[in-house]
Amino acid sequence: MRSTIAEINTLSLRQNFQLLRSFAPNSAIMPMVKANAYGHGIIECSKILSDEGAEFLGVAFASEGMLLREAGIPTPIVVMTPPETSELSLFIEYSFHAIACSLETVRRISVEAARQGGVAQLHLYIDTGMSRDGIMPDDALTFMDEVKNLSHIEWVGICTHFATSDEKDTTFAEFQLKLFNQVLENLANNGYFFKYIHASNTAAIAHLPSARFDLIRPGLSLHGCGATEEIALQLHLQPTLKLRSSIISLRRVPAGTPVSYGRKYFTTKETTIATIPIGYGDGYFRSLTGKAECLIHGKRYAIVGTICMDECMVDIGDDMMECGEEVVLIGRQGDEIITANQVAEKCGTIPYEVLTAISARVPRVFI
Question: 279-313 burial, b if ≥16 CB within 10 A, otherwise e?
Fold first, then answer.
C-alpha cells in the first residue's frame, strides 16, 4: 500500500454521530453519505453509521445507493436529487426513496411501481429559496391534489433545503423556514400529513434549532467539519480524517536552487528539500502552490514550488530527517493541526471540496 493514505478514525465518526443525535433527540437521522461520504469512504462509513442507528442514509444518485445495497446495507436510502427517467426502475428494484419535484416524474414512477408490483416511497420537495429542485410553495397543495389518487405511491416525507444556513446572518434561512412552515400548515389543513419533515443540514442543526423537525440530515459534520471552523467548534466535533504521506527522498541543495515546474520557488540558502508522494492527481490542489503547509515531527513546514501531479516538495531547512518519516497534510501531529477548513481557505474554496476531491487512488484506511 502507498504511504499516502486517508486515515479515518471510526471512533470519532461514531462519537460525532451520537453527539449530533443529542442535539435533536426527538429526530431521526439521515447521514448524508453522497460523494463517497464526503471523501471518507461511502461503504465503510455507511456500515458504521447504520450500526450506530441511522434511520436513513442520504445519497445524491441512484448509483451511490446501488453501491450500498450491493454491499449488503439494508438501511432505507433517500436519493436527494430528482430521479432521472432512465433510472426510475432502480428506485423500485432497490427500494430507494425518491424526492418528488415534478408531476410527470411522480406519474411515471407510479407506473413503474405498478409494473414491478412494488411501492414507490416519496418525499415532497419544496423549493423555499434554493432555486435548484422542488415544487414552488404556492403549487404544493395543487400538486398533492393531482397525485393523491396515483396507485403504488407512499408519501413518506416532505423536505426543503437551506441556501444560507452556514452564514452568521440567518435572515434568509429564517424566511425559508417560515415559508416551509406555511406550506406544512396549508397541507395539513387540507388533510396532507407526512411521517418525516426534514430541512436541517449541518449548519441548520447548529443555527436553527426550530428547523430540526422529525429528521435531520447531517453531512460533513459527521466527519468533524463544518462549513466554517466556527460551526465545527460550536458542535464540539472531532475530525475523522487524517491525510498523510511520507518522505520518499531528500536532497541537500545550495542557495538559489529552483524547485519544481516553472521555477517559481528558489531556495534562499543552503537547505534540504524533501519530496512527498502526493499531488493534484490525489486531489491535493495545484492551487495550493506557494500556500500549503505540512506537519513533520509535529512542526509546520512550507510546501515549496509548484505542486505536481504525483509529488510535492518541502523545504525542511537544516532539520534532520529520514526517508519514511510521516508527513501530515490534513490532520493532527503532535500539538499541531491542519484542518480541512484551513486548507480550503488557502485555495479559496470550502472544506467540502477539499475532502471530496481526495481521489480514489488514495487508499482509505479505517482505524
Answer: bbebbbbeebbeebbbbbeeeebbbbbbbbeebbb
